[in-house]
């Protein structure tokens, strides 16, 4: 298993890079925040996307040190931007089920916040429906503990899993991220419009906000706007980008105000 050995070595040597993808308000076009998406800086193959290694990282447990590194690195970057007078908004970090199951996960997050000076009110952790469901008692306890720290929890890829309405009610969840596949063929009067509008209505009634993923066209953005979806993320706005490009974007955003 060359890949596992390679991945382990890459985690040891920190051959990764955080990319950032902005999330925009669909109402006023402001940057609401950004999601950090990790890339593997492979010495022979160039930049490798998470689709090719996150699952393996989960299976091998390597996601635990890798995820911790991503969180720390992104929090440091966020703080640096704040120190430069920029407004990065909310920082959304993906957390895998494996990380979420660690007994010391909340404690680790807490020490990373202290160490980096990251504002807990600006941190958002994205968990998948399956991570929220796995070992539910612990998941509930972790979500409450993180919430007590001021951290927001969002459900990633919402609509693809088996999370019940009962859990949504039980958890202090701030945001649902609508899975890309529901946005892809989103037109007025389409099946996807019915699904998307239902998710948004339910989220709002339960006090949650909504961000749509994979927004690629103005038509999709318009349908989402009609249903009062708060945020959009996708190629219509920007692809995920390295920190220095995100910094330029944050600067030009300030100059335009
Ligand atoms: O960037 P891309 O679309 O290829 O990302 C694919 C998937 O990898 C996304 O669903 C995203 O949630 C996941 N992913 C990206 N970065 C991280 C990370 O730092 N940790 C975890 N657990 N998943 C990530
Ligand atoms: O956590 P999640 O798996 O949702 O991460 C978002 C993933 O979707 C990232 O890997 C990112 O590169 C990808 N992505 C972001 N915007 C778009 C988009 O507009 N279209 C498509 N097809 N993929 C996108
Ligand atoms: Mn995500
Ligand atoms: Na997603």
UniProtKB/TrEMBL annotation:
Residues 1-254 form the EAL domain. This is GGDEF domain-containing protein. It comes from Brevibacillus composti. The chain holds residues 328 to 584 of 592 of the full protein.
